[in-house]
Design brief:
The structure is a single chain. With 185 residues, this protein is mostly beta strands. The protein contains one helix and eight strands; from the N terminus they run H-E-E-E-E-E-E-E-E. Strands 2-8-7-4-5 form a five-stranded mixed sheet, with no helix packed on it. Strands 1-3-6 form a three-stranded antiparallel sheet, with no helix packed on it. Strand 7 and strand 8 form a beta hairpin.
């Protein structure tokens, strides 16, 4: 009888471990009952490209555009107005595919920005935001590209932060390629 009890305990423990292992991380992220989904990350007016050419000779910021929607974690319950997500800020960091990512040496400095918009329970929200600061074009490593034909390719990781209407924090991150160079030559 003790052998049977021990076998049952082992079976139940193994079953629980398999059950827990099969639960994806996505369903346990945050306490909001919805996922904030980043449907598209591009530049205003882009036609499907997930790449940006940033001209370092132009003394202007480069803008990005993000399109958001909501998806319920529990598929049997449709999102309500309590689940609307109000975005309040974003953070941009840059990295290179070769692993070099020292800000001010290999890539531009990361930064935080403010944005405000509310993603409805059904439908989408489009926001425009600064993807490359104007000042970044005057700093290393972008300033060195102004007088060369070189191109610096980076990946910008953009994280958007907000809360649903009952105070649950929620965020989502997307990535976009940025090619920096003096494209006016």
């Amino acid at each position: 009888m003790p052998a049977l009890r021990n076998a049952c305990r082992a079976f139940i423990t193994a079953g629980a471990a398999v059950s827990l292992a099969s639960c994806g991380n996505a369903t346990s992220q945050g306490t909001s009952p919805v996922f904030l989904t980043l449907n598209q990350l591009s530049t205003p007016g882009a036609t499907g490209s997930n790449s940006v050419q940033s001209d370092v000779s132009k003394n202007a910021a480069d803008m990005g555009q993000a399109i958001f929607s909501l998806a319920a974690k529990d598929l049997s319950i449709a999102p309500t107005t309590n689940n609307q997500v109000t975005l309040t800020q974003y953070h941009v960091t840059y990295r290179r595919a070769d692993g070099l990512a020292t800000p001010g040496v290999d890539v531009p400095y990361g930064f935080d920005g403010a944005t405000t918009g509310t993603v409805p329970p059904a439908g989408t929200l489009t926001v425009t935001f600064v993807l490359v600061r104007q000042d970044a074009k005057q700093e290393s490593p972008l300033a060195q590209l102004a007088n060369t034909a070189g191109v610096l390719t980076t990946i910008a990781d953009v994280t958007f932060y907000g809360t649903d209407q009952v105070g649950h924090a929620i965020n989502v991150t997307g990535s976009i390629q940025i090619d920096f160079g003096n494209f006016s030559h």
